[in-house]
Amino acid sequence: MTFTESAERQALRKAVAELGHKYGHTYTVEKARSGGHTTELWEEAGRLGYLGVNVPEEYGGGGGGIGDLAAVCEELGAAGAGLLQMVVSPAICATIITRYGTDEQKRRYLPRFADGSLRMAFAITEPDAGSNSHRITTTAKRTADGWVLTGRKVYISCVDESESVLVVGRTEDAKTGKLKPALFVVPTDAFTYQPIPMDIISPDRQFSLFFDEVALPHDALIGSEDAALMQLFAGLNPERIMAASFAIGMGRFALDKAVDYAKTRTVWKEPIGAHQAVAHPLAQAKIELELAKLMTQKAAALYDAGDDMAAGEAANMAKYAAGEAVVRAVDAAVQTHGGNGLASEYGLGALVAASRLTRIAPVSREMVLNFVAQFSLGLPKSY
Ligand SMILES: Cc1cc2nc3c(=O)[nH]c(=O)nc-3n(C[C@H](O)[C@H](O)[C@H](O)COP(=O)(O)OP(=O)(O)OC[C@H]3O[C@@H](n4cnc5c(N)ncnc54)[C@H](O)[C@@H]3O)c2cc1C
């Protein structure tokens, strides 16, 4: 057992941090406010191989694990240049296709995940299902030519930046009852979608998706119908690990800014950081972010070792811890800055709503607490 990362992982973090700082938070916020996207950053990260660190080497990737991808995600966030779609495209979609895709699907998709040129959104949330995925109704009907998909999804991130969406639906024979998901790759030009106005300052936007009898070829179905629940779970643990890393990166960014400010801003004799009322919330944020990071690394290590069950518990806990830690870190950073905390120039107000996201998505803190109560503690299910 070791509590330090390998020299290779540390070098990866350093290189990614350099790229992140080259773009930085000002770039991200300007893109967000002007309705733009952080495409240049995504493309450069892809060219440098950072978005494909977890794709197998035989498909042009780095051959690493989710721990490596999480390190990339965290370091970009810590530089103020987090890429939300990393939580989805390389983490969920590439992982599911690596583990369950047919040989042809792997050859078609993985080399393009490896260099970031393929961006795939992921759609499970539905208006009438929400946290209860067993209620999803997006349904694929088998035809002579393949499938016809009908349904609706909400809050799907980055659809406008993506070539396709990995859609979680059901086949017609598994239309009701406990979820037996079927996963389909659906090109974004095959259906209609519209943006959801959100009060989050982010270049990555959310959409409502409408599938109105969308015709898909046979091989739009990833893997097999029978392994479907396992396939879905294979993607959800990486998603939680990545969401935690995204949050930890954002929290580190806010904390660094606050510490710099607390060291220099002087309104009495000493810099404000000399006051414990200012210093302690920052110290608390540091502790909570480190704890969340440790749990995230544990979850990634378990996942990369193939222990999906233990990884599931740890990934849920990590996501919970990171969501709580980033909210408190951003709040402490805003407070440390006084009025400047909400001035656009300082970039912290922009993080207030964004930091709340990890408490809600990809799985809410309440659903994580339900999971831990039932799975870890053996308490009865309440819903
Ligand atoms: C910015 C953003 C990006 C997103 N991106 C994506 C994406 O790319 N793809 C995708 O598929 N989805 C995405 N989502 C959706 C997200 O995963 C859901 O919002 C989330 O899972 C919660 O579902 P819901 O919004 O339907 O809330 P609901 O399920 O309606 O829940 C509302 C509240 O009730 C609580 N609650 C519900 N059931 C229980 C229970 N049994 N016990 C206790 N509390 C309960 C919840 O915790 C929550 O606080 C995104 C959401 C946001 C905000």
Protein architecture, described:
With 383 residues, the protein is of the alpha/beta class. The chain folds into three domains: 113 residues, Butyryl-Coa Dehydrogenase, subunit A, domain 1 (Orthogonal Bundle), CATH 1.10.540.10; 100 residues, Butyryl-CoA Dehydrogenase, subunit A, domain 2, CATH 2.40.110.10; 149 residues, Butyryl-CoA Dehydrogenase, subunit A, domain 3. Helices cover 50% and strands 13% of the residues. Strands 1, 2, 3, 4, 5, 6 and 7 form a seven-stranded mixed sheet that branches. A hairpin with a 3-residue loop joins strand 2 and strand 3. Helix 4 packs antiparallel against helix 5 and helix 8 packs antiparallel against helix 10. It is globular and about 80 Å long. The mean pLDDT is 96. The site of flavin-adenine dinucleotide has 23 residues, from strand 1, strand 3, helix 9 and helix 10. It holds the Pfam family Acyl-CoA_dh_N.
Order of helices and strands: HHHHHEEEEEEEHHHHH
The level 1 CATH classification of the largest domain is Mainly Alpha
Number of separate structural domains? 3
Shape: globular
Structural class: alpha/beta
CATH homologous group name of the largest domain = Butyryl-CoA Dehydrogenase, subunit A, domain 3
Q: Which architecture of the largest domain per CATH?
A: Up-down Bundle
Radius of gyration from the alpha-carbon trace, in angstroms:
21 Å
The largest pleated sheet is described as:
7 strands, mixed
CATH topology of the largest domain: Butyryl-CoA Dehydrogenase, subunit A, domain 3
